[in-house]
Amino acid sequence: MINETIECILAHRTVRDFEDRLLSKEQIELLVHCAQAASTSSFVQAYSIIGVTDTDQKKKLSEITGNQASVAKNGHLFVFCADLHRHDVIGELEGKDVAVSLESTEKFMVSVIDATLAAQNTAIAAESMGLGICYVGGLRNDLKKVCELLKIPDKVLPLFAVAVGYPATINEQKPRLPLEHVYHEDCYEQDQAVYKEQLQQYNEEIQDYYAKRTGGERADTWTGQMAKMLAHPQRLYMHDFVEKQGLNKH
Amino acid sequence: MINETIECILAHRTVRDFEDRLLSKEQIELLVHCAQAASTSSFVQAYSIIGVTDTDQKKKLSEITGNQASVAKNGHLFVFCADLHRHDVIGELEGKDVAVSLESTEKFMVSVIDATLAAQNTAIAAESMGLGICYVGGLRNDLKKVCELLKIPDKVLPLFAVAVGYPATINEQKPRLPLEHVYHEDCYEQDQAVYKEQLQQYNEEIQDYYAKRTGGERADTWTGQMAKMLAHPQRLYMHDFVEKQGLNKH
């Protein structure tokens, strides 16, 4: 059952350190064509991609992410946006009132899903070409600034960047949650004891992973890491900002 | 640059009509492993997958989607869910207050993105194995019922199903928006005349596509189709329902 594509998918690891070598126009266009080939809800194609080529723009975006190196130096930087602006223009062109639709949580979800499907096609295609990729959610630290820099109109929301490039350093793969914890048959896992036991089992695996990587210095558990992170809510401006962009309002 | 994986991605078309032949346990597990190999925001792994095997369950889910055949008859039905329930349990296990984080729009977006990245890996892996796939957003017609059927807890939101199976009928590929309309360099397209011209160009392409497929009977434009659909807002219960699930609250 294993084939080249599945090998590529299973070999995924994040690359944050790229060589100083740009992608060609042909590579970029191919990656966008791959993005566009993804499924789209009711054919709405509710996303846009901004390719950032300007070094200064990359630097400014990197600052927003807390100076992530992959944003400043890469082969190409794709910013994936949920996009219902196009459909706003369409409403105007066709003389139809589409406002209630476009402002709904349903269509917000559709646009986030569409943009993400497209992004993952780009990511896999890039990896299949021997390139490395890194998703960068850190743009969401300050979307107001991102929108200003990229001249983003109403009803468009930048979600994340995908930095693509020639890998300089290749990271290890982090072990994932046990399959049985993520995948349930016929209904969501109902046995709380089993559920918690799986988390415990995974904690041990993650502790081993960190111990090996750091020569015993680090011994985080996954649940410890997650609880620590989630105890400090991040980006609470998002709810109002998304509404101000004209999305997720009702 | 073209390789097997890119060929597979570019060849995507939706399959709605499957043979009466189930996927094996090995195929299903491999597809879940592929899902899990996707990137995940800050390692949160904020999704779950429900595999539906029960024929009666499939039938009930199909009814919710308006009797879509691909939901009732397929090789396997994966329901992808945004999942922060796991992190709620983690907060409890670790004695940390994670409520504000988990209820935020930011983390709602993270969980939708994580689930969608995973789903697209499953979709591509399945297609690379010669299987067909169909995303089914129609589950969102009645998520309350879906949650009851699949015993979905608080802070979990089913987003869509991916029906996978052996194709009985293969559809044509629909042409996508012009690349220049979806992909902008350095900033969002600022010239409204160019923007609208691209939509017009695409309308002609779509009209040709439908005319050829239907022997001239159908002549929809894309903007016409979209405006017609969006003039009738769908699933307006979603905003409150998502909040009731404990997500996207502030």
From TrEMBL, chains A, B:
Ranges in a coiled coil: 185-212
SUPFAM superfamilies hit by this protein: FMN-dependent nitroreductase-like (SSF55469)
Domain Nitroreductase: 10-166
Keyword Oxidoreductase: yes
Protein biosynthesis recorded as keyword: no
Pfam families: Nitroreductase (PF00881)
GO MF annotations in UniProt: oxidoreductase activity
Keywords carried by this UniProt record: Coiled coil, Flavoprotein, FMN, NADP, Oxidoreductase
Family: Belongs to the flavin oxidoreductase frp family.
Protein name (record): Nitroreductase
Species this chain originates from: Trichococcus palustris
